[in-house]
Each structure stands twice: as structure tokens, then as C-alpha cells.
Amino acid sequence: MSGTGTGGALPPRESGDRPRRQDGRPEVTAGTARPPGRAGTGAFPGPGRPRVMGVLNVTPDSFSDGGAYRTTAAAVRRGQELAADGADWIDVGGESTRPGARRPSPRAELERVLPVVRALSRLGVPVSIDTMRAEVARRAVDAGAGLVNDVSGGLADPAMLAVVAELGTPYVVTHWRSGGTPVHRSETYADVARDVAAELRERVQRAVDAGIDERHIIVDPGIGFSKDASQSWGLLRHIGFVRDLGCPVLVGVSRKRLLSEVSGQATARERRDLATAVVSAMLTSRGVDMLRVHDVAGTMVALRIEERLRSE
């Protein structure tokens, strides 16, 4: 396998094209169809640096921080902390994808996320909603969320793509074979990077066919989703094939199992934050546009170091 995708020259920007950064990559924006009161997103300091999405799990059983922010007050405080640390989005999720997790009912998921989304949005904090359910996405956007992050890539809920098209928000399309089945069940790939890129291309086309503005689509290769550690490392190593799709790329490796083999911490997941920060900085140099992390402060330090080393 070659090191990265080919990535030919980008055409000149025309009216209506997605804004582009100084390095030619598509800019991640909050879209143009933002309803009144939605917080949207703030500018990220410095050209060419990725947006950072801070993870805020309001679940009792998340793999890394389950139960820590179950009350609205605790979750809102944590969201404010993540924003103060430099997060451009606070990704609020009410469903765990840890091994063996049982799906909450739609009502339970809504009860978990809506008060937090509403409170943070009223404080002016940019919020994304991490959900596989169309109704949760709709209600969260009505409450102030400005981005829908669907780890199933539109497979778990047949109504999701049409709802997102109607809402007009940015939409994260994640690669997860048979989204909604056990997340950690690994699959067979002939060439993991090329296969993931090809399957993401199909999902992006499905989203566009459903009416989602292509300028609003962000792709996530789904590290750890239907991929074992070796496959995930191979995908990160050759992330250029995903970049070649032409959409902004979001990557989430934070505290995931593949980091335990390099961090030496198989069970203490919060101690994988150092490994997360290192990988995040390296992905920045490979053109990744967004990073989804638990430890925003540590990641920001790593990004500042990477920027200093890259600057003249």
C-alpha cells in the first residue's frame, strides 16, 4: 500500500463552494441553514489547524467516563470546562458504544441529552449531538445543537438522512460496517484504508442523494468501529485515502483500546490521554481537519507544539 492517497490539485473556489483553508483543505463550518438561537461554532486560532470536538458523555455506562456527568449541572460544568480549554464543539452523547452496552430507549436518550444541549447552547457554547436516532437529532437541533454526529453513518435509523437534510446542519458520516451492530466486532478488509474510503464514498453519496448539502458533510473513518487495533493503525497510517474524498475529515482515537498497546495502560483509560494527544498532533500534520477527544487541554498543548515545529 502506498503511504497516502494521491490527492490531486483542487479546483479554484467558485461561488457556493465550501470555503477552503490556506492549505487548500475544505474548511469546517457550521453551515448556512442555522436556525435562530443555535450557537454554531467559533473560529479556531491559527490557519491550517484542526477543529477540536470535546467529548461529553451523559451516560451511566460510557467506556471512559460513564456516570461522571449524569446530572445536567455536572454535564454543563464539564461542557464549559471543555470549551474554556479550547474545544470548538462540545459533542453531547446519550448512548454508549462500549462492548456489551444496551441501547437506551429513545425517551431515555432524549432525557439525557436535551437539558444539556439546551443549557450549553443558551450559554453560547457550540454543541454537536452524538446520536444514531433521527428524532434525537431533530430535537437536539431544535434545542440548539449545530451539528449531527452519527456514528452509524446513517445505517441505524433509515430516517436520519432525510431529517438531517431538512435540518440543514453539518453531518458527520462515520464508517461502521453494519452500523448499529456490535461496534467492536472486527471485519475483514482486503485493504483497510482503500476499503474504508470506498465505503465512505458510497455513504456520502447516499447522504447527498437524500438531500444533504455536500458542503455540510464531514467524514469519520470510524477508528475502532468494526476494526481491530491492527486495522485501525493501518487506517490511521494511510488516512490520505480518506482525505482524498474531498470532505473534511474527523478522527476520534481518544482513549480507545488501540492506544493501550502503546500507553501500557490496558484498563486505566484516562491514562491514554497522552497517547491521544501525540496521535492527534501527528494526524494534524497529515491533514486531518477535526479531532474528537476527551482531554481537550492536553490535546491543545500537543497541537501548539506541532504548530511551532511546523512554523518558520
Notes on the protein architecture:
It is built from 10 helices and 8 strands. Residues 1-23 and 29-47 have low confidence and may be disordered. An 8-stranded parallel β-sheet has the order 6-5-4-3-2-1-8-7. It has 312 residues and is α/β, with parallel strands linked by helices. The protein has a single domain (51-310), classed as TIM Barrel (Alpha-Beta Barrel).
CATH superfamily: Dihydropteroate synthase-like
Instruction: Please trace the helix and strand order, writing H or E for each element.
Output: EHEHEHEHEHEHHEHHEH
| Tally of contiguous helical segments | 10
Q: How many individual β-strands?
A: 8
Shape: globular
Here the CATH topology equals TIM Barrel
Low-confidence stretches: 1-23, 29-47
In short:
With 312 residues, this protein is α/β, with parallel strands linked by helices. 36% of the residues lie in helices and 11% in strands. It has one domain: TIM Barrel, CATH 3.20.20.
Topology of this protein?
Blueprint: E1 51-57, H1 72-85, E2 89-93, H2 106-122, E3 127-130, H3 134-142, E4 147-150, H4 160-167, E5 171-174, H5 192-209, E6 217-220, H6 229-237, H7 240-243, E7 250-251, H8 260-263, H9 273-285, E8 290-293, H10 296-310
Parallel strand pairs: 1-2, 1-8, 2-3, 3-4, 4-5, 5-6, 7-8
Helix pairs in contact: 1-2, 2-3, 3-4, 9-10
Q: What key attributes describe this structure?
A:
disordered N terminus, alpha/beta, 10 helices, single chain, 312 residues, 8 strands, TIM Barrel
